[in-house]
Amino acid sequence: MLKFELVPVTHFQQNCSVVWCSETNQAALIDPGGEPERIMQVVERLKLTVVAIWLTHGHLDHVGASNALAKTLKVDVIGPHKDDEFWLKALPEQSKMMGFAAHDALAPTRWLNDGDTLSLGNLTFSVLHCPGHTPGHVVLFEPNSKMAFVGDVIFAGSVGRTDFPRSNSQQLIDSIREKLWPLGDDVKFVPGHGPMSTFGQERRVNPFVADARFG
Ligand SMILES: [Zn+2]
Ligand SMILES: [Zn+2]
């Protein structure tokens, strides 16, 4: 069974998700954006064995602790899609722009593609490529628990910014409506920032992507 705990990190209160398989205690860290010591405290308290770091996209507030944690835990960094490589190469510049401590560029051991799967103990996550906020953004979905980890694609009541280089607002709306909605109204999601919601709730009330907007 999938279990998870959220650890909001950095001054952007980015949701790092510690996710694990309750039968094996194997864990993955989704979007460890900063404060590696706090994330490690959660891992140790829950007595988990971290086997990988998974990234939804290349923005610093989602990846900032990846290098440090990969080294401490001796695990691979997996994702996002290769189209976000330019963001990961620009981490030193992103650090200055966002008021973070200097950060080295990051090179994941594996890029993700639409339709890939990720194993974690007895769990299997599917990978959906959802460009728009960034061109290489991915969403990670675990079908048995109907849980999606969506990064900055969609939030409770909002959607990801599209004023960055290579962002595309129409593509973002298409990703949400064509890739996420078919997963089901009852899917719960953890966004990159803020509280959880369900796709059904957002289809009713989200001013950017509610069904009513599209007739
Ligand atoms: Zn972002
Ligand atoms: Zn973010």
Question: What can you see in these coordinates?
Answer:
The chain is an alpha+beta fold. It has a single domain (2-214), classed as 4-Layer Sandwich (Metallo-beta-lactamase, Chain A). It is built from 7 helices and 13 strands. A 6-stranded mixed sheet has the order 6-7-8-9-12-13. A 5-stranded mixed sheet has the order 1-2-3-4-5, with helices on one face. A hairpin with a 2-residue loop joins strand 6 and strand 7. It is globular and about 50 Å long. The termini are far apart. One zinc ion binds next to loops. Residues 57, 59, 133, 152 line the site of one zinc ion.
For the largest sheet, list the strands in their spatial order.
6-7-8-9-12-13
Low-confidence stretches: none
Output the CATH homologous superfamily. Ribonuclease Z/Hydroxyacylglutathione hydrolase-like
The distinct bound ligands, ions and cofactors come out as: zinc ion
What would the principal axes of the Cα set say about the shape?
globular
Number of domains: 1
How many DSSP H or I helices? 7
Distance between the termini: 38 Å
